[in-house]
Amino acid sequence: MIFKKKFSILFIPHQKGKVQEAKVSLHVLIFLVIGFVLLLSCGLFFSLDASSRAFDKLKLSRLEKENSYLETKLDELNSAISNLKGQMAELIEKEKKVRMVFGLPQVDTQIRRLGVGGPMPSKLVDVGPAVEQMYVVESELDKLLRQARFEKENFEEIYSSLSERKKILDHTPSIKPTSGYLSCGFGMRIDPFTGRKQPHQGVDLAADVGTPVYAPADGIVSYVGRDVGLGKLVRINHLHNYITVYAHLSRIAVKRGQYVRRGQIIGVVGNTGYSTGPHLHYEVHHQGRAQNPLRYFLGSECQVD
């Protein structure tokens, strides 16, 4: 039988010595080879397992560090979000106060809620707490961004409304056009030249010749000239149907068609035309009707009776 055959194995030393011979049968040789292969495989397996365990341990350590870093960053983000929420609440309160001060309509509570609300995200499944927390942070940031856009639109609306109001105020007479004292008021009076009672469509402000005369509001000079009774004369057209008139000037400092701003010098007090002494005759007209100019002297010592 083949398995009963004998094989000789010679052991030859590197140095001088006797050569050793061992005889083994084929089945013993096969058993030894299989045993060697199994031993080698086991050694390789345990070596790979040890390497795999070391790698997994290193990977776990790295993941733990990354997780700790993420948790720290999440805490910082949550703190920043909380701070932003506080600032946003303060901004909303300031917006409400601005609307109240300037008489603007308040934003309806339901509309504001729609502007910053929206459905809450459903709870995630099969994810770690860090991922779930990141989703919550993302949701909060999304709310804040939508709220910021909503408030930006609100402030743009407020700015537009106040800009329009400022434009109206800039073109509404609101300051005393010259210094001096009130020598003749608005309404019926005795004309000093005719002795007859007739309407006085403005007020007379007595002042020295050369006293500056200022534009009481922004507008465009619509007339510069001379009138027999009013002497040297300037008329300014303002927006929203306001017109102002300045008479008895001794010198005019503007030209027809010129744009002037509130506080700009348009001339100086004089005694031209029918006048009993140096003064400024000043008129305010709104929508074609003469108004009492004293009503437009804001912060002045001249008051309406």
Brief characterization of the structure:
This protein has 305 residues and is of the alpha+beta class. It contains three helices and 14 strands. Strands 3, 6, 7, 8, 9, 10, 11, 12, 13 and 14 form a ten-stranded antiparallel beta sheet that branches. A two-stranded antiparallel sheet has the order 1-2.
Task: Walk me through what this model shows.
The protein is rod-shaped and about 160 Å long. With 305 residues, it is an alpha+beta fold. β8 (219-227) and β9 form a beta hairpin. Helix content is 41%, strand content 26%. It is built from three helices and 14 strands. The strands form three sheets. Strands 3, 6, 7, 8, 9, 10, 11, 12, 13 and 14 form a ten-stranded antiparallel sheet that branches. A two-stranded antiparallel sheet has the order 1-2. It has a two-stranded antiparallel ribbon with strand order 4-5.
Identify the notable features of this structure and list them briefly.
3 domains; Glucose Permease (Domain IIA); alpha+beta; single chain; two-stranded antiparallel ribbon; rod-shaped; 14 strands
Chain oligomer state: single chain
Unreliable runs, pLDDT <50, ≥5 residues?
none
Radius of gyration, in Å, reads: 49 Å
* Run of helices and strands: EEHHHEEEEEEEEEEEE
Tell me the helix content.
40-55%
- Corresponding CATH architecture of the largest domain: Distorted Sandwich
Strand content: 25-35%
